[in-house]
Design brief:
268 residues, 5-stranded parallel β-sheet, two-stranded antiparallel sheet, 10 helices, P-loop_NTPase, DNA replication protein, DnaA_dom
């Protein structure tokens, strides 16, 4: 026991006495007291032991939750660190606007992922750049990360940055983002955002490497929110049809069209 010497422990054992009282919770156990120490009332050693065990379990559970919820920042790849701060309250909309509808639909998606943690199903946010897709996708992750019971591990991957990191791994093997690490970290997560799909393909058909990487990600997890600036027609021109189908696999209400929302970043 930290801070308690062997001599102190020996003294406690020397003064320890069994009383005639028994524990209300453990009737077969006699309360004990310390001879000559009146300020300490008789106590049940079994109760003390159970309390210590319960505290240890609670500490372990708290550490497990902290580690799980910290997975989002620890394991993700973001283009800008402030993206971790995106939430629904920070997504400002005008009443009855297309943005308000998108925000409402994203909240419903977050609610579904929270309420049915074991239910598989992907989501797709597509359309104009700057319309708020990344913001709402991260808002969903933060909502699930903060409120899910039991805890769910959330992961955010910028596709463009992911492909760059993987190419760096092939070049020097120093970077951690090997193909195996990618599939392992995606598989370990409960909910994943693949952000800005299409930016890595320079407005042309995605390379075989990109196609295979993205397909492996969808194979490793069946709860993925994909954001892309491409239209549906452009998605089908850029990626294999099976990939585009995977992006929409699940409830069709989880596909949100941002094509009619103007660039929020360009507004004063």
């Amino acid at each position: 026991m930290p801070g308690i010497t062997k001599e102190t422990v020996n003294m406690i054992e020397y003064r320890r006495r069994k009383s005639s009282q028994t524990c209300p919770k453990h009737p077969d156990t006699h309360l004990v007291y310390l001879s000559g120490v009146d300020r300490i009332a008789p106590f049940c050693e079994v109760c003390i032991h159970e309390k210590i065990q319960a505290q240890d379990r609670q500490m372990h559970d708290n550490l497990k939750v902290q580690e799980g919820r910290g997975f989002l920042k620890r394991a993700s790849l973001v283009d800008r660190e402030d993206a971790f701060n995106y939430n629904f309250d920070g997504f400002i909309t005008q009443p009855n606007s297309k943005e308000a509808t998108a925000k409402h639909d994203a909240r419903l998606i977050a609610g579904a992922y929270l309420k049915y943690p074991d239910r598989k199903g992907n989501s797709l946010f597509y359309g104009n750049a700057g319309a708020g897709k990344t913001h709402l996708a991260m808002a969903i992750l933060n909502a699930v990360n903060d409120h899910a019971e039991p805890m769910q591990k959330c992961l955010f991957l910028s596709v463009n940055k992911l492909i760059r990191e993987m190419k760096n791994w092939f070049s020097d093997k120093i970077c951690i983002w090997s193909p195996k690490h990618v599939t392992d970290v995606v598989h370990a997560a409960d909910l994943v955002v693949l952000d800005d799909l299409g930016a890595e393909s320079a407005n042309s058909e995605a390379t075989s490497f990109v196609q295979d990487t993205i397909f492996d990600i969808y194979e490793s997890n069946q709860k993925i929110i994909t954001t892309t600036n491409l239209s549906m027609d452009e998605l089908y021109r850029t990626y294999h049809a099976r990939l585009v189908s995977r992006m929409q696999e699940g409830d069709k209400s989880r596909v949100i069209d941002f094509t009619k929302i103007a660039d929020k970043r360009s507004r004063v």
